Amino acid sequence: MAGSTAEATALARRLSERGEDAARYAPWFDRGRCREALAGNGLPRFHAEAWRHTNPRPWYAAALGANGGGADVRVQAPPGVDVATFDEPRAADLFARHSGDILDPAEHPLAAVNGLLLGAGVVVHAPAGLQAATPVRIDGLGAAFQHVLVVAQPGAALTVLETPSAFAHRVVECVVAAGARLTHLRRQDASGGCECSLVAATVAEGGRYELAQLSKGAALRRNDLVARIDGPNAGAHIRAAWRLDDGHLDNQVRISHAEGGGTSRQTYRGVAGGRSRAVLNGAIHIAPGADGSDASLTAKNLLTSATAQVFAKPALEINASDVKCAHGATVGALDEEAVLYLRSRGIGESDARDLLVRAFLAEAIVDEEGARSLGLSG
Amino acid sequence: MTLLAVENLHVEVDGKPILNGLSLAVPAGQVHAVMGPNGSGKSTFANVLAGRPDYTVTAGSVAMDGEQLLDLAPEERARKGLFLAFQYPVEIPGVSNMEFLKAATDAQAKAAGQQAPSAVEFIGRARQAAADLRLSADFLKRGVNEGFSGGEKKRNEILQLLLLRPRLAILDETDSGLDIDALKVVAAGINAFRAAHNAVVLVTHYQRLLDHVVPDRIHVLAGGGIVRSGDKSLAHALEAKGYGWLDS
After folding, report:
1. ipTM reported for the complex, 2 dp
2. Which residue(s) pair with A309 in the sheet?
3. Which positions in chain B touch A349 (Cβ < 8 Å)?
């Protein structure tokens, strides 16, 4: 393997030595293609295209030290939603039927590592037409390497909430069937650890996938997201907001319009202060023939200190002619005139700045509880 | 009793002197107008009182109710009862006017050790004040000054004045950009605010606001200091003869 550091080499050796004992947990899980992917491409190096601003090295060190975990699965679901851990027999069947081709370990080497070191997995299944009364809460899966498969069958409506919990890598696969609606809330707390994740979503005709992800910084936090529009009137709306006082956050998002007539929106609002570093790559891909696609991306960043850094890059790959596509990215600072205006009315300086930060982030925040998770008063 | 006492105030911006020994005393219960030509230092004076950071005070003192102001942060001055109506009110998209007004009221109540009004009570008060200023209730829901016309922004300043009930109101060119109807509405707001326990300093270029808000004293600011003070007839003399008359 072509890892550039001692940590990557050691991790690669551990992965190759794992052999048969790995298959004790969920033996049906296809580890072969994970192994092939890593054998072919190796682990990514710092400065490689997808890792231009994020050094994966601390993650390799953390992944090496991570244990398998005791599978302390903490998931709550409303009536009608089936939750099966990977060691329950029906999970294998649900997984075989629904886990799709969007999750390609060759393109996501950290997910391949996850597959080889998998310690906990769960399938969340909403049957056709189910209107779930309350969110499915994922409070923790108790292993360093985790896999979640969420299936919303035709016409189902479901909310899945990921509350902050520790892991080395988590894969969340979301399958949104025709006419289904999946709202996916993710909250990520400040952490001194290295946490990486991959969300892979597919949306069939008339379905809707809505992500609202709120992040604080970590020593290394990387969120990859791939979403694919698979039919007409399918929609995906990605909202991500972050407020970093410290640490590193890298969001890598790619939305593909595989079929025409779908809509995608990407809304990013980020505040970076202290010595934090925020990275955003947001890509829109329109496949050949996906006419009538409508896609947009806006990214607004606020720097609240002279030592914070932001790298924001929207990217468009358009291979169809009849499409609507728009994107824009900005980086700025708080309006000091507005701070003074608020202070001149008796509002303290830190409260004034908080109020302005909250207003800035508001477009990407969908609920009050989420706002509080970013340290913003309701 | 003197509410505002300014003595020998010297102020610089970027090393350039703007105010050169300005002195002014405003007793409680009075309205004083500070008039002067462009560039005379009127807005500098108003902003220094409110604590805008871009100015350097090189000498002099400012006291409100006997308490020195110049070492206080802008929010501390506001909590002690000082209010500046901005010449150019700031647009704050994403923060609703109501949210802003409640946050300001709560912050000031807290500093005074008083109970903040309940949300219901406050909304009632805000709606009444908006109606008095002929602002529709929608203005309370919109972002602070966001997309407001010039006149609406000025009326929104007076709305804040009526809700925050300061001890000392400094109105910086609040009459500029107002048509005659809006001017009357704003003047009525200021007159409603006037009381024995507070004071108003009107900073203005023109005399026309003073037809509707009759001042107790008028001061003419030129070259960074007060060059003449008098009663309301001074404003009419200035209007008739222009500021050049003072030099002759």
Report:
1. 0.96
2. A277
3. 73, 75
